[in-house]
Amino acid sequence: MKASELGIRESDGVTDDVLAARLRAGDPEAMGEIYDRYADRIYNFCFRRTASWSVAEDAMAAAFLEVWRVRGRAVAYDGELLPWLYGVAGNVCRNSLRSQRRQTALGAKLHLVEGGVHEDDHADAVAGRVDDERRMAELVAAVEQLPEPDQQILMLVAWDGLTYQQAAEVIGVPVGTVRSRLSRSRTRLAELMSRSDEERNR
Amino acid sequence: MMDQQIPERRLSDEARARRRTELMEAITADDTRTRRWLAPVAAAAVVAGLVGGGYAVTRLGDNGAPDQRPERSLDVAGSGTATPSTQPTPVCGDITAEEPEQSMRDRAATPLWRDPAVAPSLQSYRDILVRHLDPRDAHLERRVTNIQAGGSPECGFDSLGTKLGWNVAGEDGLGMVQVEVSTSRRDSQVGMTFDVWDGVHSGLPGVERAEVAGDGDRMAVLVTRSDGLAVGILADPLFGNNAVTPVSGFEFTIHDLVATAADPEFALP
């Protein structure tokens, strides 16, 4: 999806470096600008971790609150704030998933989401959301079979669109490690998805 | 492959606006709470620094994010609003709690870590730590908002130091690196942190004595220079004041800490 489709105002004159500096200085307006610029990106990022649009919306909101709480550490890697935001949001999504899993199994969770969709949503839209969630849940379930470090790299590069360098900065590993782990995890995930398809078609 | 299969959506306009309003209300409330908290803490720190030249520990702002707005008058302990005034002549060596209240208010309005006589030294401490321990500048807290000091700008310091958070990307925890420069080993708080210190041979110029200590995951070094100045550095995976989760570890060794503490650029203001 293009940045403009996600509501990112690329033509804005304020660079992420400037926004990061203002955020570190405790400027609430900078926080608002960061939200305007990246809310959709973080929303989708959280969906890719939670496989639920409603949970993703809550997690997105919690992530921005956390961003404000840890604003003193804000940093733009290569002039982009997004990798750091992803780092913060990733922690929030992990915590959100943990607490959610303590309360309910995945099936029950999907059922709740289905029931929780706004009543005025068009039927097709509702079906679309639920379909999204089912597909995402399958992907997330497959990815979770990979080692934890591989999961992170796969999601950050293949799903979230970070460069190798940015992913390396977020995770704190060398770029070469990102490359090798990504290659390994792509291969492994393809095997897992293929096996999953075979089982479903039996 | 699966990259194309991943669904993406935009937030609805209603959700976007509602969440934004909630966020801005929350951070505005947080900002107000922080500023209400700053005044009494700053005043308490000044009193602690004045009485007996003790160690005044101030942690201003949360998570390395001090209030950067223009200086405001502070209402210290409900005693009125501070106004600029000429500094009274400092009385050193016999400082008591009878220090004029106006002076205390003036000092509270300028936190010690922002004092022009102190801030450059604290910043230089961070620069030295970054140079030796965090050359990519990826881990150490960027803003120095914490100070441990014995003495005062007017009367000189027996010791000056700071604690900086240590972040590891992708981890929830927060570690800490404390550095302290003191006029002698005896005055070093880092030195007092551990009962047992082992002497090591550093072979570094200007170093009269180098010692190391540790327990659990903590490690510390104390270097006494030939001019008598002592530099202590303590690395702790858990920044106990500010976090409950430790980081997984540090990228440096205790030998790196010794070399850092031996850096001749460490100096008192």
TrEMBL record, chain A:
<dbReference type="InterPro" id="IPR013325">
    <property type="entry name" value="RNA_pol_sigma_r2"/>
</dbReference>
<dbReference type="GO" id="GO:0006352">
    <property type="term" value="P:DNA-templated transcription initiation"/>
</dbReference>
<dbReference type="GO" id="GO:0003677">
    <property type="term" value="F:DNA binding"/>
</dbReference>
<dbReference type="Pfam" id="PF04542">
    <property type="entry name" value="Sigma70_r2"/>
</dbReference>
<dbReference type="InterPro" id="IPR013249">
    <property type="entry name" value="RNA_pol_sigma70_r4_t2"/>
</dbReference>
<dbReference type="InterPro" id="IPR039425">
    <property type="entry name" value="RNA_pol_sigma-70-like"/>
</dbReference>
<keyword id="KW-0731">Sigma factor</keyword>
<dbReference type="GO" id="GO:0016987">
    <property type="term" value="F:sigma factor activity"/>
</dbReference>
<dbReference type="InterPro" id="IPR013324">
    <property type="entry name" value="RNA_pol_sigma_r3/r4-like"/>
</dbReference>
<comment type="similarity">
    <text>Belongs to the sigma-70 factor family. ECF subfamily.</text>
</comment>
<protein>
    <submittedName>
        <fullName>RNA polymerase sigma factor</fullName>
    </submittedName>
</protein>
<feature type="domain" description="RNA polymerase sigma-70 region 2">
    <location>
        <begin position="34"/>
        <end position="102"/>
    </location>
</feature>
<keyword id="KW-0804">Transcription</keyword>
<feature type="domain" description="RNA polymerase sigma factor 70 region 4 type 2">
    <location>
        <begin position="138"/>
        <end position="189"/>
    </location>
</feature>
<keyword id="KW-0805">Transcription regulation</keyword>
<dbReference type="InterPro" id="IPR036388">
    <property type="entry name" value="WH-like_DNA-bd_sf"/>
</dbReference>
<dbReference type="InterPro" id="IPR007627">
    <property type="entry name" value="RNA_pol_sigma70_r2"/>
</dbReference>
<dbReference type="Pfam" id="PF08281">
    <property type="entry name" value="Sigma70_r4_2"/>
</dbReference>
<dbReference type="InterPro" id="IPR014284">
    <property type="entry name" value="RNA_pol_sigma-70_dom"/>
</dbReference>
